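[job 4471] stage=fold_predict status=RUNNING
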Amino acid sequence: MSSVLLIDADGELWYTRQEELGVECISMPYTYNDNEYYYDLGKNTDLKKFYQAIRDGAIPKTMALNPQEYYEIIEKHYAAGNDVLYVSFSHAMSGTFNHLNTALNMLAEKYPDRKTTVFNTNSISLGAGIQMEYAAELKNKGASDEEILAFLKEFTNRSVVYFVVDDLMHLKRGGRLSGFAAFAGTLLSLKPILTIDAEGKLGVLEKIAGKKKAIRSIADKVNKTLTGLEYRVYVLDADCPADGDMLADLIKQAHPDANIIRQTIGPVIGAHCGPGTVGTVFIADQRPIPLKAD
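[job 4471] inference complete, writing structure tokens
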């Protein structure tokens, strides 16, 4: 059995790749400078303008979709006689899935023979997006829902995210980091290397003084654990391309055959991590275990 495959913009699969795969994406909302937007995976989004606005003092915010929006997105597929397989970003990162459940309960009354299966990638940004990407590849090769879900259940635990931010206060403002941890890290010029754990929560791997050292440490961790060379390696930056290029070069030196894709972090994720963030997503044998979860 095969359903319509849905992904969401918090997985940050770039619009050209999304269009190439022919998969439908749920746009996620954000605001800054009193204007509301829905992320289009980079198609028409001025990312440099977004990050400059933050540097100039704008405080971006992200919001959950409301139940009616989810209802309308899914109903069109039910009305056409199709079930839905939704590969989503981490449920631990947002309350939006409570609204999704409300919509699904409403739809169940009208369409009792239809169903939506939600796979929680327990990740964010391209840590979720890489799972969405290869699920879509499988679907395009004719895989059933059962085959896609079996693949994802193993693949999700291999999707690794490492990143470092310039300003910890962005994570604190978004509730991703405690106020004390953000203040102490800023005061001591520490750059925590962050990851997403197996439960889809933010975790700290280690704390390093200085961003360049942190980037080298991330590269070292990647180079020691990267095993999935048949999959893409994503190197991401939030309007700091030189830092992203440095990380990509360090990985390429150790793994010349790696298919490294450079990409800018989008505004929904960027609202929480802020400009100057740099990180990577790749496939290893398993996700790392953080020192602590914030």
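[job 4471] summary: The first strand starts at residue 4 and ends at 8.
[job 4471] exit 0
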